[in-house]
Amino acid sequence: MATTILLGFSQSLNMALIARMLGGAANGNVGIIRTAVAEMVPQKSLQPRAFSVMPLVRYTIKLMSFVAD
Amino acid sequence: MAPAMQEDRLPVQQLAILCMSLRPYLTFPSHVSLPFPPVSNLSNVSCCKFLQPISMPAVAVIGEGEERRLFADKAYFAAICRFAEPVALTNANPYLPEMIESFGVKRDEVAKWAGLTSAIFSAAQCLTAMLWVRGTLTHSQRFNVSLTSQRLPNVSVSH
User: Fold this and answer.
1) Could you read off the pLDDT of B129-147 as tens digits, one per residue?
2) Which residue of A41, B69, B84, B155 is surrounded by the most CB atoms within 10 Å?
3) Per the domain annotation, does B31 fall within a domain?
4) CB–CB contact B105 A13 (8 Å)
């Protein structure tokens, strides 16, 4: 969120690039969240529902971004 | 007589009545019992011997009370964690060309710099993802916040 605000307040091209790069570097959760969900839900019968939450959220946000475009 | 075949109803009403009559056969709400016995009752049948390992419940039943509440907490935790990345990724797309143009870049090169600015996010994410994973592997044993109701098996990470 801080890097998004930094991108919004950037005054030059280099600053925008650096803000965007920092935003990408701070978003390392994607590789971890799958393992975290697998460790948080040890019940085998509940894991399909738990793993279906992540694509649901992801594509809902993507849909919102396409609508905003 | 089947109620869906009556002539004095609209086709929409007939379709609705047909769907309502099919409702006991839908298996998704777990409180509706299946019209046929579950597969696990067939375990004594000798001809189904090779089918036994793939026998599984047709509906994943979520527990009641405390377990269900804990599962919802975990699922919403994962959802919130997953919420931030697409927002940060697709946030700048609508206004990025105008923003690059406002920096004084020539009009011929706006497209190139907008594309590079969009791509550097994923590039940095690609380069730092392994660092994040390494950091979690070393520090997850230290900050062990247990969200589960039962103890997880201790997994030792060797370095």
Assistant:
1) 888 888 777 776 554 444 4
2) A41
3) no
4) yes
Beta carbons within 10 angstroms of residue B42's beta carbon: 13
Q: Compute chain B's Rg from CA coordinates.
A: 28
Query: Nearest CB to B94: which of A24, A57, A68?
Result: A68
> How long a stretch of residues is chain A?
69
Q: How many domains does chain A divide into?
A: 1
Mean pLDDT of B64-93: 75
Number of domains in chain B: 1
Confidence of residue B67 (pLDDT cuts 50, 70, 90): low
Nearest to B21 by CA among B29, B13, B9, B10: B13
**Local structure of B70: helix, strand or coil:** helix
Interface test with B, best of A20, A49, A65 (most B CBs within 10 A): A20
Place of tokens 């706006």: B110
On the 0-12 / 13-18 / 19+ scale of CB atoms within 10 A, B17 is: middle
> Chain A interface, mutation test: which of B71, B96, B112, B121, most A Cβ atoms within 10 Å?
B121
| Domain boundaries, position A52 | 2-68
The residue range of the domain holding B73 is 66-139
Q: Using the beta-carbon criterion (under 8 Å), do A45 and B61 form an inter-chain contact?
A: yes
The pLDDT tens digits for B31-62 are 444 454 444 444 444 344 444 334 444 444 45
Give chain A's radius of gyration (CA, Å): 17
